[in-house]
Structure formats: C-alpha cells, structure tokens
C-alpha cells in the first residue's frame, strides 16, 4: 500500500496594495516607506514610495504633489504615476532607475571619495532646485537616493511632502528651517557613504537630526577608519555639512553642491573647479587692480629715463598689481623666445631692465584702476587684506637673515598671500564665507569654548581646494611656477618646522612666519598674545631667531620709540 503524497508547502500570501503586488520592502522611516512592487497593469517592476500614515486631506496632497513635480532637474527622478490607493498616497517609479543607497552600501561598504562626492553633488543640486522653488522633500532617506549603473544619481520623493507650511513670515521661516534640516540630512548621508557606517549608529537621518544641535547635544564627524582614505578637502566639506554649530553648516543645498562640484572637478582635472574659475577670471580681468594708485600714476607720468632702475623698481614694488604684471610679462616673453629653461625672473628690478621703460609704462596703463571689478561694498575687505600683506612683507624683511635681497623677501611673502588677495578680489562672496567659518561661533552652555575653522579647512569647505592651489595655478598661468612654486607654499599650521636646508626654504619659512604673526595681530587679547607665543615657539629655533627679534620686527615703531627715549 502506497503512502499518501506529502502536502505541498504553504505559499506565502500575496500582499497587495491596489494594483501593486508588494514584493520587497526596500526601506522605511518614521514617515515613509519604499516598496519594490509588480504593477499588474503593466506587468512591470516598479518602486513605490508612500507615506506610512493615511492622508488627512488627499485632495490637498495631490494638488501640492503635482505642483512640486513641475520642478525639474536631471537628478530628480520623475515618477511614472502618482495617486491614492486605500487612503495612502504614492509615487511610482521605474525600477530600472537604479539601486537604492541602502542596496549599494549592502554590497559595497563604502564608495570611493570621488564617486561619493559626485553623487552627493548631483543630489544636492536637485535638492537645491526643489528648495528654491519653495518646496520640500518631506523626508530624505538613504532609500530615496538611487544610483544608476552608469554612475548617475537620482533623488526620489519630490512632491511627497504635501502642502507647504503657508505664506506668512513664520511659515517661511519654518520652510527655511526644514530645508536646512534636509541639507543636514544630505550631509549625514555623505558621511555614511564615505565612512561606511551610519552616523550615531542610526540609519534614519531624520532621527540623527533630532540628536544634533540645535535640537540635541550630540555631534557627527567623519572618522578616519574608512576603507578609502578621504582627502582632507573632502573631509572638510563633509564635516562642515554636519558641523556641530548650525551657523557653520552649509546655508543651502546649492552651497553644498558647489563645494562638492568644485572638489570633484579639481580631482578629475587639476586645473578645474575653483582653480579653473579663477584662471578664467585672470584671463578676462587680469590679476589684481591697481593697489597703490599714486605709485602707478608716478610710473605713468613719464620721466622714467631719469630714474635709476633700482629707484624705479622700488616705485613699482609699492603696487602689488604692477609688480606681478611686470614679472608676468617678462617671463611670458622669455617663454615665447624659448628661454624659460634659464629659470624664472623673480626680480622686479631685473624685469624693469629687461622690458624697458616703454613696456613698464604700458603695463601700468593696462592695469584696471582701483577697485577694478570689485563691488563697492567689498572694497574694504580687499584693502584690509592688502594692508596685512604689506605688513607681513615688512616683518619678513626685518626677520630675514643678512644677505637676502629685500625685494625677493617681499616678493615671496606677497606670493604666499596671493591666494587670499585673489579670492578677495575675484571671489568676494566665497571670501566672506571663509572668513565667517574662521570666526568662533558664540559660546553656549554645551560648547563654552567653540573654535572656528582654520583657513585651510574653511577654504576646503567653501572652494573645494585650499588657497595654495589657487596661488600655484596663478603662478603657472603667469609663467612664474618654476621659481616661486615651492616658496609660495605655506606650511600646514600643525606641521613641525625643521631647520631649513637651503636658501629658498629659509625664504619660504621666513615669509610663512611673518604671515602667521601678522594674522595673530588681528586677534583680540588674550588670544593675540597666546597665538604670537605659539608661532614664535614653532619657528624661532629652526630659523635661529630670538623672541626679541620677533618682537622688534612686529613692533618696529615701539622699538624706535624706546631708542628715541634712551637718546633724549
């Protein structure tokens, strides 16, 4: 007698939502969820994004969603359908768009820095487009970030937020606050992409936002244990996006996108990003405008043939723009003649002798008069930057060892300040951002001693590169790279200073010391005194300088007054 056949295994019940067969839950948060479904109407796989709660006013949601979907961007995924089913709103997308960020991270713990930054930049631009049109995403989750096989990134959920908060002043402020939180969420997702772990061990960015200031007291920083080392510039961008102090974060998605795009472009093309933007402006508008009009007028006035070349060079050196313009002209002329291999001309006096008086006068006439293309409201900042550059050159001249040409000492110091000056002139909005990030935020009970970013960190976070990169690109553009490139680079603020092994290194360190000392003079007491002491300890031994040497160079007027009192 044969035994009866075993019953077939039970089949899982088919879960449905209207025309959709629910196949896999790809992600959920407190507010929404994403399903992979089969759309029985087309027999095609779809992604369906929907709020977890039923809508109190489905008609208002539909109207608001359709209005939000009018905003278009290449990285905003366009839904195939939106609607209501069983009281739930939904947006349906083509499953072929790509895999969610969660799916990508499940297969690959981290992305390469360039990949991650490029994806985040695209999504940030899409988010900016939504915010600038007066809408919100409503929720920004890793399952709403799609990555296509061809490297493109898409954002799902445009229109999911429903009706906005209203049109009065308080409502507009709520809209700005919620948009800022969405930018913070994007920064948290970038942190996860680069670091491979969810910030605060929480996969829902909205929950992390509630635990960060101003809502909570925790903080998020990108760790150093990622599988791919993260370059310092990108680390600075990521950390600014999630900064503990809300005032130090990116104010808009557009600002974050620009910083990321500039960094990615610079990585892929060393002359791209902000570097390329600056070089383009150098070609169109020149370097700096006339900085000492009286000196340039004296050069233009004629009678130059009666002056010794040294006296004329001293006159030219009063104006930074004219000094660099003469060096640019003489070195580019030598390059055209095939003589660049002989080394760059770094002496203004030699440049005057080689170019001739007529060319010197032509160079002076070619400069843009003060303040050039700079808007009037930005003029004061450039004046202050120029004053600090001249003060640093004076200090460097007094600190340089005997035998070093004062003109060359001044030139190297000016060159180390060149990136700052060019940003103040050509990129004044970015210069303002850098200065704000360097200022310490107001103290709070939780952070009684806050600090600002260093200049390098702030430049990375705003420009996607540091000021040295801008200086070096400019020197290459002007034909001065061979002679000045190494001396134009300032040491990192936290790197040890060793005894210089060559004259160029002595010049480089002397200029850097002088700039750091003059920067310290701008600080309030007691930070000014503390910073001067720190800088002195760092450089003095390597350069063979005493504390008295540095004090006399910083305060020559006080030293002369003491001498006068002694003699009187």
TrEMBL record:
One Pfam family per UniProt: HDOD
Coiled-coil region list: none
PROSITE patterns per record: HDOD
Span of domain HDOD: 288-494
Name this polypeptide is given: HDOD domain-containing protein
Organism (species): Inhella crocodyli
């Amino acid at each position: 007698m044969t035994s009866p056949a075993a019953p077939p295994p039970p089949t899982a019940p088919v879960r449905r939502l209207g025309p959709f067969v629910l196949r896999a839950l790809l992600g959920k948060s407190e507010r929404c969820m994403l399903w992979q479904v089969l759309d029985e109407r087309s027999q095609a796989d779809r992604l369906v994004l929907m709020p977890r709660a039923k809508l109190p006013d489905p008609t208002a949601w539909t109207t608001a969603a359709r209005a939000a979907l009018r905003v278009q961007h290449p990285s905003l995924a366009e839904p195939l359908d939106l609607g209501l089913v069983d009281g739930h709103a939904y947006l349906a997308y083509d499953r072929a768009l790509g895999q969610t960020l969660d799916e990508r991270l499940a297969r690959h713990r981290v992305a390469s820095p360039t990949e991650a930054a490029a994806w985040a930049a695209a999504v940030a631009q899409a988010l900016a487009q939504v915010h600038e049109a007066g809408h919100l995403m409503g929720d920004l989750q890793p399952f709403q970030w799609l990555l296509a096989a061809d490297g493109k990134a898409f954002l799902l959920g445009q229109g999911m937020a429903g009706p906005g908060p209203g049109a009065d002043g308080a409502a507009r402020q709520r809209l700005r606050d919620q948009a800022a939180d969405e930018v913070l969420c994007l920064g948290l997702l970038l942190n996860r992409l680069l670091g491979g772990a969810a910030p605060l061990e929480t996969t829902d960015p909205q929950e992390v936002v509630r635990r960060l200031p101003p809502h909570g007291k925790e903080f998020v920083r990108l760790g150093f244990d990622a599988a791919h080392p993260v370059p310092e510039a990108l680390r600075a961008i990521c950390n600014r996006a999630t900064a503990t102090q809300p005032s130090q974060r990116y104010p808009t998605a557009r600002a974050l996108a620009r910083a990321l795009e500039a960094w990615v472009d610079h990585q892929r093309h060393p002359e791209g990003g902000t570097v390329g933007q600056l070089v383009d402006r150098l070609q169109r508008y020149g370097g700096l405008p006339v900085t000492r009009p009286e000196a340039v007028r004296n050069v233009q006035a004629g009678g130059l043939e009666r002056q010794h070349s040294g006296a004329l060079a001293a006159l030219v050196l009063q104006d930074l723009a004219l000094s660099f313009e003469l060096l640019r002209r003489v070195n580019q002329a030598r390059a055209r003649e095939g003589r660049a291999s002989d080394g760059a001309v770094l002496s203004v006096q030699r440049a005057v002798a080689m170019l001739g008086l007529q060319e010197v006068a032509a160079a002076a006439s070619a400069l843009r008069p003060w303040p050039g293309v700079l808007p009037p409201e930005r003029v004061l900042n450039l004046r202050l930057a120029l004053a600090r550059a001249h003060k640093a050159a004076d200090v460097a001249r007094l600190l340089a060892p005997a035998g070093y040409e004062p003109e060359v000492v001044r030139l190297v110091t000016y060159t180390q300040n060149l990136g700052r000056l060019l940003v103040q002139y050509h990129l004044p909005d970015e210069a303002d951002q850098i200065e704000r990030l360097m200022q310490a935020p107001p103290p709070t009970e939780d952070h009684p001693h806050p600090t600002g970013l260093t200049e390098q960190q702030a430049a990375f976070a705003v420009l996607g590169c540091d000021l040295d990169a801008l200086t070096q690109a400019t020197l290459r553009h002007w034909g001065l790279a061979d002679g000045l490139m190494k001396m134009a680079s300032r040491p990192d603020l936290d790197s040890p200073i060793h005894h210089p092994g060559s004259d160029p290194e002595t010049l480089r360190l002397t200029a850097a010391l002088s700039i750091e000392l003059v920067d310290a003079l701008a600080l309030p007491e007691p930070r000014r005194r503390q910073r001067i002491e720190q800088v002195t300890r760092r450089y003095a031994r390597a350069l063979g300088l005493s504390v008295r040497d540095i004090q006399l160079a910083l305060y020559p007027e006080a030293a002369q007054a003491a001498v006068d009192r002694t003699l009187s």
